[in-house]
Structure formats: structure tokens, C-alpha cells
């Protein structure tokens, strides 16, 4: 196993991590910003008012994107498993 193969696997793994985290993080960011905007307009400063909608939105994002996320992760795992013989120098 050479350094370029390890770096390729690491870059692909980090890119996959970013792709899988993006829908959840962006959803939480957008909902958090919207709730913060409403809180600043109405001057209601309640912590649970921002937490509960974000939790619900993230759960919905997981339900919507969950199938895609799992298929991407399984595809990446298959690619890595298929590369094992060539990484070990067998083929």
C-alpha cells in the first residue's frame, strides 16, 4: 500500500463525510437562523424555542435524505472492499 492510495482513500472518505453531513448541517443552520430572526424581531429569548424546531427539522431531513445517505455509504464501502486486493499488492 503506497502513500497515494492512502491519501486517495482519505480524501474520498472526507468528501463523503462532508456530503453526508451537509443536508443535516444546512437544515439546522437555516432553521436556526430563521428562529433567531423571529426571536430577535419578537424579543422572545427562550432556549427551547430554538432547540425544538431544529430537532424536528433535522429529523425530517434525516427521513428525507436517509435512503440516499445509506446508499452512498454502502457504495463507498463496496468500492473500498473492491480495492483491498490491489492495495495489498495482489492484483
* Regions with little confidence, pLDDT below 50 for 5+ residues: none
- The number of helical segments is 2
Approximate strand percentage? under 5%
Class from secondary-structure proportions: mainly alpha
Total beta strand runs? 0
Question: What does this protein structure show overall?
Answer:
The protein is mainly α and 91 residues long. The protein has one domain (3-87). Helix content is 89%, strand content 0%. It has two helices and no strands. The chain has helices at 3-42, 47-87. Helix 1 runs antiparallel to helix 2. The longest helix has 41 residues, at 47-87. It starts with a helix and ends with a helix. The model has no long low-confidence stretch (mean pLDDT 91).
